[in-house]
Design brief:
Elements (H helix, E strand, L loop, with lengths): L2 H10 L6 H9 L7 H11 L3 H5 L8 E4 L2 E3 L1 H8 L16 H63 L13 H57 L9 H4 L7 H5 L12
Antiparallel strand pairs: 1-2
Length: about 260
């Protein structure tokens, strides 16, 4: 990209940086860049301002302060408020950026969890509706199988005192009973597996509910931390708010609630 083309792009984002200025910056004749120029150049190049200051992906170290170098990604996190100055070797800063990003992440997780839970509930309801008919079918088949077993048992009992070589072939009724029992056994196995699926789906619903409660508890604690530091607590979508139990300071810190005095009783 030529200096003139970049100059034209800066004009499109609202403030033209002359070609001559860009040429001086590139050649090193001008050694400093104003904050407003940095922002305009980043917008024109479609990158973040941090990437112009700290070239992530193009080197393993960058000087962020006099005599202090670090990984470019660490430097960008510092610039974005996610950590303290690299020389302090701290992973989390006292800036609201990290807290609010974590807040946003938890909200997204809860929204996704709600959709997952609702899907599992729908599957469970459908399975329960089919399960009732399945159980009735199982009862009917087990009744039929019991009658067939009685028929087969009676035939076997009648053949007990007959030599194996002298036994006649199975009567058609008995042969049909054996074949029917095989078919019923196969169908019962499939039906019982289908009936147990509802129990499995119920466990999925319970797991989704428990996860939502855990996420809601984390978000409640985070919101209390944000508020306690004097930062603005973000609004919550209605369907997320119901999973966030706003607890008192004493509960969050692990202290029991004040007992009522004699005058209050």
């Amino acid at each position: 990209m030529s200096a003139q083309q970049l100059s034209d792009l800066t004009a499109e984002v609202g403030m033209r940086i002359p070609r001559s200025v860009l040429a001086n910056l590139e050649s090193g004749r001008r050694g400093n860049v104003g904050v407003h120029e940095l922002l305009v150049l980043a917008a024109a190049l479609n990158v973040s301002p941090g990437q112009l200051l700290f070239p992530v992906g193009y080197g393993d170290s960058v000087e962020v302060l006099p005599g202090s170098s670090t990984d470019p990604l660490v430097a960008i996190h510092w610039l974005g408020g996610k950590r303290l100055a690299p020389r302090l070797k701290a992973s989390v800063s006292n800036s609201p950026v990290a807290a609010l990003e974590w807040h946003e992440s938890l909200v997204r997780q809860i929204e996704g969890g709600i959709e997952y839970r609702d899907q599992k509930r729908h599957e469970y309801v459908q399975a329960m509706e089919g399960r009732r008919e399945t159980l009735r079918r199982i009862d009917r088949l087990e009744g039929e199988a019991s009658a067939l077993h009685s028929l087969v048992s009676a035939w076997r009992e009648s053949q007990r005192d007959t030599n194996l070589a002298d036994r006649p072939e199975r009567p058609p009724q008995v042969a049909d009973a054996f074949a029917s029992l095989d078919l019923i056994a196969a169908e019962l196995k499939t039906l019982k597996e289908s009936a147990s699926q509802a129990t499995f789906l119920r466990e999925g619903v319970d797991y989704a509910d428990d996860r939502l409660k855990a996420l809601g508890s984390r978000l409640a604690r985070l919101r209390w931390d944000i508020d306690s530091k004097g930062w603005l607590v973000p609004d919550l979508p209605n369907r997320v708010a119901r999973f966030v139990v706003e607890r008192s300071t004493s509960e969050l810190l692990g202290f029991p609630e004040d007992e009522p005095s004699d005058d209050q009783e």
